[in-house]
């Protein structure tokens, strides 16, 4: 198969012909039809996240945000078959631990992430382990390019806002950072009936946020986001999301909340923070602020999200800014150094 291969940290990806993946016991082979290029791929490509144990072996194939068609299944697999259209969540489990048995495979004691734990969607075929747990049927009405972002950024925001923060209609939601995750959060919170304030340092990204439903936007280089959110919302947001994971957005998110507000941490840190961010703890106490972490989404929750897509309440395709051939994947990754990508870029030609 053809794959964009990573030979080392920050080395340009090389499109090569490599061996097709082996079929795992309890697994399936998926022919990739579309794969979103995510900032998490950039973190892995730059060597981030070593502070919580991530270390890739080379050569390696990235890509954790993909969908496609089942080519082959092992005899043990019962819930999917050859020819099925599937969406592949990045937060995977093995099915037997307490978390998996309780429908929360995204918190599995033995986590599997495509493109990290095994070769991913920057290749034409992917061998997915524990297919009955980790593959989601993709309705025929949803095309592959639209579905590509739903295996990571979109579903991550859905779980964060619906399951973890429990956003309600009429609430004020502040989203700090309008990359793929942030724009997904803007769109989903708006669909839930919330009033969304989007914060970023790029006017282009803020324009996208407006098109996706934000009622107000703030350029952090031109205004104090915390003070402006307090003014717009008459006291602060009910829910505030750090969708980036740097100290500035995390701190601003917490400080922009009203009393008894909920801060939701989606973004993981990079080399500047290495997992450690100072927070205004006295403010957290005095305002009774809740700090909520949110990671991925279990496959068992995809039905609710996909139903909203099928009825038109959610439209993840609106976040796709462009599609590219496999040969351009490396260039897109490199451009993320400057936060210059807008929306979701999808590989759809292999």
Question: Can you describe this structure?
Answer:
The chain is α/β, with parallel strands linked by helices. It has two domains: 2-152 and 297-349, Quinone Oxidoreductase, Chain A, domain 1 (Alpha-Beta Complex); 154-293, NAD(P)-binding Rossmann-like Domain (Rossmann fold, 3-Layer(aba) Sandwich). The chain is built from twelve helices and 15 strands. It has helices spanning 39-46, 98-101, 131-134, 144-148, 153-164, 180-191, 203-211, 225-233, 247-255, 281-286, 302-310, 329-335, and strands spanning 2-5, 14-17, 28-37, 66-73, 85-88, 125-128, 136-137, 172-176, 195-200, 216-219, 237-242, 257-265, 290-293, 320-325, 344-349. Strands 3, 4, 5, 6, 7, 14 and 15 form a seven-stranded mixed sheet that branches. Helix 10 (281-286) links the parallel strand 12 (257-265) and strand 13. Helix 5 (153-164) packs across helix 6. It is globular, with a radius of gyration of 19 Å. The relative contact order is 0.16. The mean pLDDT is 96.
Gist of the model:
With 350 residues, the protein is α/β, with parallel strands linked by helices.
């Amino acid at each position: 198969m053809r794959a964009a291969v990573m030979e080392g940290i920050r080395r340009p990806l090389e499109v090569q012909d490599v061996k097709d993946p082996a079929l795992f016991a309890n697994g399936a082979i998926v022919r990739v039809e579309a794969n979103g290029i995510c900032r998490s791929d950039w973190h892995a490509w730059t060597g981030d996240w070593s502070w919580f144990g991530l270390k890739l072996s080379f050569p390696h194939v990235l890509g954790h945000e993909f969908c496609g068609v089942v080519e082959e299944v092992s005899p043990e697999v019962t819930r999917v078959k050859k020819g099925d259209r599937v969406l592949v969540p990045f937060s995977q489990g093995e099915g037997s631990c307490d978390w998996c048995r309780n429908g929360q495979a995204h918190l599995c004691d033995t986590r599997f992430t495509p493109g990290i734990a095994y070769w991913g969607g920057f290749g034409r075929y992917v061998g997915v382990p524990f297919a009955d747990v980790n593959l989601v049927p993709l309705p025929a009405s949803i095309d592959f390019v639209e579905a590509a972002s739903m295996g990571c950024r979109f579903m991550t925001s859905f779980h964060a806002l619906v399951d973890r923060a429990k956003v309600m209609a009429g609430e004020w939601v502040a989203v700090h950072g309008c990359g793929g995750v942030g724009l997904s959060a803007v769109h989903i919170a708006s669909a839930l009936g919330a009033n969304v304030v989007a914060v970023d340092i790029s006017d282009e990204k803020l324009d996208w946020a407006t098109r996706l439903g934000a009622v107000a936007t703030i350029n952090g280089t031109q205004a104090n986001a915390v003070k402006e959110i307090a003014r717009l919302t008459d006291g602060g947001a009910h829910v505030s999301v750090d969708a980036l994971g740097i100290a500035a957005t995390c701190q601003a998110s917490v400080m922009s909340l009203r009393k008894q507000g909920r801060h939701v941490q989606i973004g993981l840190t990079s080399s500047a923070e290495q997992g450690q961010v100072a927070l205004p703890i006295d403010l957290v106490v005095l305002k009774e602020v809740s700090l909520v972490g949110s990671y991925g989404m279990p496959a068992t929750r995809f039905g609710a999200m996909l139903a909203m897509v099928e009825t038109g309440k959610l439209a993840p395709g609106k976040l796709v800014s462009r599609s590219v051939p496999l040969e351009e994947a490396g260039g897109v990754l490199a451009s993320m150094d400057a936060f210059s990508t807008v929306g979701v870029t999808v590989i759809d030609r292999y």
